[in-house]
Fold:
Amino acid sequence: MTKFRLDKELVNRGLVTNRSQAENYIKLGYVEVDGKIIKKSGYFIHNYQKIKLNKKQKYVSRGGLKLEAANNKFKVSFKNKLVIDVGSSTGGFTDYALQHGAQKVVAIDVGTDQMHPKLRQTSKIELHEKTDIRNFKPKNKPDLILVDLSFISLRLVLPHLHQISGSKTKLIVLFKPQFETKRDQINRGIVKNDRIRRQIIKQFETWIKKLFKVADKMDSEVSGTHGNLERFYYLQKI
Structure:
């Protein structure tokens, strides 16, 4: 009897919109087959088996899920912390920080009208729109800085974050290889060559040692835009 890949079957049954979304939900443990949680996209099932999707909208965007998966490993406490969210956008990282006890989040983004309405009503958020982080100086040293930026290299931003950090400030940074390399190494917005990706990462990790200690790192369990394999870094000021 014919069997089907779980990720494809999620799409075929209309439970998700595409395979990338299916892979994310499977990795996060949101998918059950006949009552058993399956975390392998390539798991094969029969078409008569029951699939249940236990997806709850925990955060206002996928960013919250990305950060949750990373911090399950990093174990960074947000309780009563002053947090700066660089590249806040819809507010996924901000939402995660608040749900995990942050005292206040200073959200910064170059765009405007992106923050989710649910978060805009929250008094614990100090929102700075149309703001380049490189021109921003906080009133107080943050306990924690979260970084999720697009269309700019971290090399242009991290030196400033080093300046505004206190001696005990910690950073959780999302590294996106497609914004850290030359255009000729990108195919339709994706770094497809694993050798090139490893080279980009090695160069970045050599550079970052001048500013921060890499306390921990992990590849994001939730894929980036167009399927780019992103990486989280947990950094501490030197």
The mean pLDDT is 90. The first helix runs from residue 6 to 12.
